[in-house]
Specification:
- Pfam families: Sigma70_r4_2.
- Keywords: DNA-binding, Sigma factor, Transcription, Transcription regulation.
- InterPro entries: RNA_pol_sigma-70_dom, RNA_pol_sigma-70_Plancto, RNA_pol_sigma70_r4_t2, RNA_pol_sigma_r2, RNA_pol_sigma_r3/r4-like, WH-like_DNA-bd_sf.
- This is Sigma-70 family RNA polymerase sigma factor.
- Helix 4 packs across helix 10 and helix 5 crosses helix 6.
- This protein has one domain: Rna Polymerase Sigma Factor, Chain: A (Orthogonal Bundle).
- By secondary structure, it is mostly helical.
Length: 210
């Protein structure tokens, strides 16, 4: 989806709330990349063999489609937050189901409130990257569109590049922690991150010039 197609969030939301089913489908589809990026940090490693980020996103979008009439906001930012809550709820429910099968109490490990807080913090870190890629002041709707474009670009990166960017900019980890997660030295993790950022800049540049 190119930039001219993305600059429709407010209009699509308004049309969807007026009952236009096609606009709702288009609006939800535009959030796939954003939700996938968040899913990489929300999905507990213990259940990734059972539930992929794509599965979690699909489940969340289906739920959003089914319950769209319950959304009471009016702005793209509010809609983004609503989708984020659905994603976190589904991620938490999947982990709880898995841990209950192992006779463990998930709620004692990570209360739902902490999961929501972590998701909001991840969203804020991801949002801050839009300014880091040379974008000037923008309206709320434009910012949401930029966030979607950035997320789509991250999702299109090779797996290792995507992982290091998610760990650094979505989870907010230090390079020493990233190195441990990726089984590399801190120096190698930093070099990988630098290459990933360069590829991401190239991808974003291509999109903004379409």
């Amino acid at each position: 989806m190119n930039k001219s197609q993305q600059r429709q969030a407010t209009r699509l939301l308004r049309l969807a709330q007026s009952g236009d089913a096609a606009s709702l489908d288009t609006l939800l589809a535009s959030y796939i990349g954003y939700l996938k990026v968040l899913s990489h940090s929300q999905l507990d490693p213990r259940i990734r063999v059972r539930l992929s980020a794509s599965d979690l996103v699909q489940e969340s979008l289906l739920e959003a489609h089914r319950d769209f009439t319950k959304f009471v906001g009016t702005t793209p930012a509010e809609f983004t937050g609503w989708l984020r809550k659905i994603l976190v709820h589904n991620a938490a429910r999947a982990v709880e189901t898995h841990l209950l099968a192992e006779k463990r109490d998930f709620r004692r490990e990570r209360p739902f409130e902490l999961l929501h807080k972590a998701a909001d913090e991840s969203h804020d870190r991801l949002s801050s990257m839009t300014a880091a890629h040379g974008r000037g002041p923008a309206s709320e709707a434009e910012h949401q569109d930029d966030l979607t474009l950035l997320s789509d670009a991250i999702e299109q990166l090779p797996e290792e590049y995507r992982e290091v960017i998610v760990l650094r900019h979505v989870e907010g980890l230090k390079f020493t922690d990233i190195a441990a997660r990726m089984d590399r030295t801190a120096g190698a993790a930093r070099m990988l991150w630098m290459r990933a950022i360069e590829k991401l800049r190239e991808a974003m540049s291509d999109v903004t010039h379409e």
